[in-house]
Amino acid sequence: MSGIPAPLITGSIAYLVLGVVLIGLVQAARGVGKLDKNDAGTGNVVVVISVFSMWLFWLCAWMHQWHPLISPIYEG
């Protein structure tokens, strides 16, 4: 049994970093007074759900292309 492919780890780490940066931006907006506590909480939920959904979509697209069931047929 082989390990987890490197592109899968790299992409997952990239989405994790994106999520952390976006949550940091929400907290920074709360710190400077642009958002109150409730709006920052809603922003955190939106960020987490959005980043997870984007990662899941990317993961599905990557996995579908990893070992295709049907290979292309070239006519020519």
Automatic annotation (TrEMBL):
<keyword id="KW-1133">Transmembrane helix</keyword>
<keyword id="KW-0812">Transmembrane</keyword>
<dbReference type="GO" id="GO:0033179">
    <property type="term" value="C:proton-transporting V-type ATPase, V0 domain"/>
</dbReference>
<keyword id="KW-0472">Membrane</keyword>
<keyword id="KW-0406">Ion transport</keyword>
<keyword id="KW-0813">Transport</keyword>
<comment type="similarity">
    <text>Belongs to the V-ATPase e1/e2 subunit family.</text>
</comment>
<feature type="transmembrane region" description="Helical">
    <location>
        <begin position="45"/>
        <end position="64"/>
    </location>
</feature>
<keyword id="KW-0375">Hydrogen ion transport</keyword>
<dbReference type="Pfam" id="PF05493">
    <property type="entry name" value="ATP_synt_H"/>
</dbReference>
<dbReference type="InterPro" id="IPR008389">
    <property type="entry name" value="ATPase_V0-cplx_e1/e2_su"/>
</dbReference>
<dbReference type="GO" id="GO:0046961">
    <property type="term" value="F:proton-transporting ATPase activity, rotational mechanism"/>
</dbReference>
<feature type="transmembrane region" description="Helical">
    <location>
        <begin position="12"/>
        <end position="33"/>
    </location>
</feature>
<protein>
    <submittedName>
        <fullName>Uncharacterized protein</fullName>
    </submittedName>
</protein>
